[in-house]
Amino acid sequence: MSSIEKITTFTTELNADTTEWCPIADYSDLFVCGTYQLNETEKTSKFNQESVQRIGYLYLFQICEENVGFIRLLQKLSMPGILDCKWFRMKIEEHIFLAVVNAVGELRILELLKNGNEPYLNEVQLIKVTTESNTLLLSLDCSCAITNNDVKIIVSNSAGEVTLISYKDGSFVVDDCWKLHQFEAWIVAFNYWNTNVFFSGGDDCKLHCFDIRVGRTTISNTTHTAGVTSMQMSPKQENTLVSGSYDEKILLWDIRNMKIPINSLDVGGGVWRLKWESKMGHEICASCMYFGSVVVNESNTEIIAEYKEHKSINYGIDWSLLSEEKIYQNLNIDKCEDFKCNLITVCSFYDNLLSLALVKIPKEST
């Protein structure tokens, strides 16, 4: 039987809503956690009214051996409230980039560097994606999961827009912007196998497939009955997409025929994040808001393990890319011959909680 076992927890200073593991070899023991919180205590002297300030921290952590507490905080960066972040899955001209979107319309690019043996993040570019003061950037995705040719970022916002940003001559530049959803565009995801195509999901219950080459939506699907909040293309299986929604359903798609999904699963909570396991690609982890977090087997689209450590809204979740050997070494546990093991991090909002957990899946089930 599969299981998810808590290893340790960390309390963040502000509300935690996103976590991402570094996918680059030699740095796969690193992960980040982003936070977002409304600070409504400040008064503006000009209008003598309450001013809403959206604040956040970006934490950089490293997995370490048991005798020093499993995770080590390397860095804490103050910035506007963070809604999403993504590591580039490949080096770009030898750079290791992390992209962050925030509540004041900014895309920030940070580079992972080293001071001696100590990794740290350094901001290298800030792009003002929108000048509308009330527009939040909600999600992003980077194109380079299969190849690092023609590097692009897509960003979605609370006005229902998706913005394309390209990497040209050593920097990132805004290329185009499209109004794709009537309400919030909660999620965007590249087709990693054809990065001229991306998918977007919005609060209008629509899932769009958009082709950059022709500048228009080529497929629009309304199978989800509530806002489409999560989505990711499989980095291991071409043509396979997973989506999630406030309707509490996870849908699996073959993008060659999106009239009906391949399979559907009701998980009992709004599905805020979905992540494919990147080493083998047979499992999906999902943060399901008030229901907790789950791991789903892709082949039969069933929940194989649940994680209920977080009592508040589960927003962030991601898989480690550490080798099993490194996991056993860092956790100081014996090798599980009958199981494949991986780590996940999960973070939740109002309880300001980040946790590290061990996922064990029987080898015969994979």
The dominant shape is globular
> What value does the average pLDDT take?
93
- Rg from alpha-carbon coordinates: 19 Å
Helix content: under 10%
By DSSP, the count of extended strands is 29
Unreliable stretches covering 5 or more consecutive residues: 42-50
Discrete helix count: 1
Q: How widely separated are the two ends?
A: 12 Å
**Main sheet, how many strands, which sense, barrel?**
5 strands, antiparallel
Strand content: over 45%
User: How do the SSEs run, as a string of H and E?
Assistant: EEEEEEEEEEEEEEEEEEEEEEEEEEEHEE
| Class by alpha and beta content | mainly beta
Structural write-up:
This protein has 366 residues and is an all-beta fold. It has 1 helix and 29 strands. The protein has one helix at residues 324-331, and strands spanning 3-11, 16-21, 30-35, 37-43, 50-63, 71-80, 82-87, 97-102, 106-115, 118-128, 137-142, 152-157, 161-168, 171-179, 185-190, 197-202, 207-211, 216-221, 228-233, 240-245, 249-254, 263-266, 273-276, 283-287, 293-297, 302-307, 314-319, 339-348, 353-362. The strands form 7 sheets. Strands 2, 3, 4, 5 and 6 form a 5-stranded antiparallel beta sheet that branches. A 4-stranded antiparallel beta sheet has the order 1-29-28-27, covered by helices on one side. Strand 4 and strand 5 (50-63) form a beta hairpin. The longest helix is centred in the last third of the chain and has 8 residues, at 324-331. The protein is globular. Mean pLDDT is 93; it is low at 42-50. WD repeats lie at residues 221-263. One of its GO terms (molecular function) is diphthine methylesterase activity. Keywords: Hydrolase, Repeat, WD repeat. One of its GO terms (cellular component) is cytoplasm. Pfam families: WD40 (PF00400).
